Structures are given as C-alpha cells and as structure tokens.
Amino acid sequence: MNPWYALKRLFPSRQRSKPVVHFLHIPKTGGTAIKHALQGAVSPKFEIALHDHGFRLADVPIGEFAVFFLREPIDRFVSGFNSRLRQGKPRYSSKWTADEAIAFERFSTPNDLAEALLSGDEATKQAALHAMNSISHVRDKFSHWFGEKLDLADPRILFVGFQDRLDQDFASLARLLALKDIPALPSSDKDAHRNPPEMSRTLSPKAIATIQDWYADDLDLYHSFHRLMGSHRTSGIERRMAK
C-alpha cells in the first residue's frame, strides 16, 4: 500500500473536501507511464492516490474510487515475461528470485515457456508450470487485484482504460479528473518502462492457444470490460459522479 495513504488511514482528517481516487497499478498495463504523468497532478474534484502493485480493489474503502488500466492477457504475458527476463532494466533493477533464475535458465523466450506447458516430456512440462507460477508479472492474474469474482458494477470502479489505447484513454482519465491540462505521458522507453523492440514477442499458434487457456478467466474479464466500454460509448469506462 502507498505509504502516504497508509498514513492517511491511520490519521484520517475529520472530513475530506474531495473524494479519493485510487490508481491501481496492475503490472504491464501502462501503469508506470500513467503514474509518471500524474505525479504531482492536482485535481479540483478528487484527491489522487497513486499506488504500487500491492494495492488492490479490496483496499479501496466504500465511498472512495478506483481507476485502473487493463491489457490483453496474452500480450501482458509476453510483456511480463520479457520485463522480468531483463530484471526490469533500465528503469528498475529488480533481481531475479531464486525461482525466477531457474525459470530463465530453462526458458529464454515467452514462446519457449508457453509451448513447454504442453510438452510430452514430463520434466519440461513441470519446469514450465514452475516458471508460470514463479515469474513475477506472469504469475499474478487479474484476480490478484480484483478477487475471484469481480462485480463489474462495483460503485468504487470509476474508470477503466486499456493499454492498447493508452494515449486516448489516459486523456479521458485526465478529463474525468478535471485536470486543467492533460499531462504528457513519457515518450522514452525507460520512463514508460517499455520492453526494448528487439526482445522476442512472437508466439506460435500452439503457444497462443496454451496461454489463452492459462489466462481464460483474465480474458473473460478483459472482454467483459470491453463490452461494458461499448455500452458506455466512451474511450475507457467511466462512471460520472452526480454534480
């Protein structure tokens, strides 16, 4: 949990003049770029709380709000694998855990790992299962942040954007927050924490089918939010508060 917000929870003010909006940072969904842009932003309508990966929807009190971005789960798997392969560098330097080191010694590309899940060799298959459950950003599914059964109508969810339309949806979020000027998203790969273009991103049809099955629940949630987005006819999903 964001240390600033934890302190606010311990010593709450008697009455907040503005409702709190919490940014949930789901890894590899554009969150680093969004937090970079929103750092220091002041909204006349909301108190903005930017959080790390550990803050979940369950941590948002009733009466406060959550905003977050999602990414297509197969694409998120590839990005998450490559991010941990390079240990978060150059923006971060997060060393492998012992289990991650074992995984990356065995599997050098996301395609290798995905195909190994269906290997006829039991040792290879078990190594792949161990890797999928050990690599950060690959291991944690959306349920880690939303629980096993998310109510899409949860009144705390104020806005949902999508990584594949990051610029457009971030602009919608900035307008929802009533920011005077739309902050600029970082342009450099380092500040945005993007994987270098030379890293392997290709998945075979076999690998795609395997990862679709692995992240079936994430895909259902992702597409459910996309359908809800269409019904709202907005860029991103937003629930506007009554003035």
- What name does the CATH topology carry? Rossmann fold
Number of domains: 1
| Arithmetic mean of pLDDT | 88
Q: Name the shape in a single word.
A: globular
Determine the oligomeric state from the structure. Answer: single chain
Order of helices and strands: HEHEEHHHHHEHHHHE
What structural class do helix, strand and pairing data support? alpha/beta
Low-confidence stretches: 10-14
Please work out how many helical segments DSSP would assign: 11
Q: For the report, how would you describe the main beta sheet?
A: 5 strands, mixed
Helix content: 40-55%
Q: How far is it from the N-terminal to the C-terminal residue, by CA?
A: 30 Å
Cα-atom radius of gyration: 19 Å
Task: Let me know the number of strands.
Answer: 5
Q: Provide the β-strand percentage band.
A: 5-15%
CATH top level class name: Alpha Beta
The CATH architecture assignment turns out to be 3-Layer(aba) Sandwich
How is the largest sheet built, in terms of strand order? 2-1-3-4-5
Structure in words:
It contains eleven helices and five strands. The chain has 243 residues and is an alpha/beta fold. It has a five-stranded mixed sheet with strand order 2-1-3-4-5. The longest helix has 17 residues, at 216-232. The radius of gyration is 19 Å and the shape is globular.
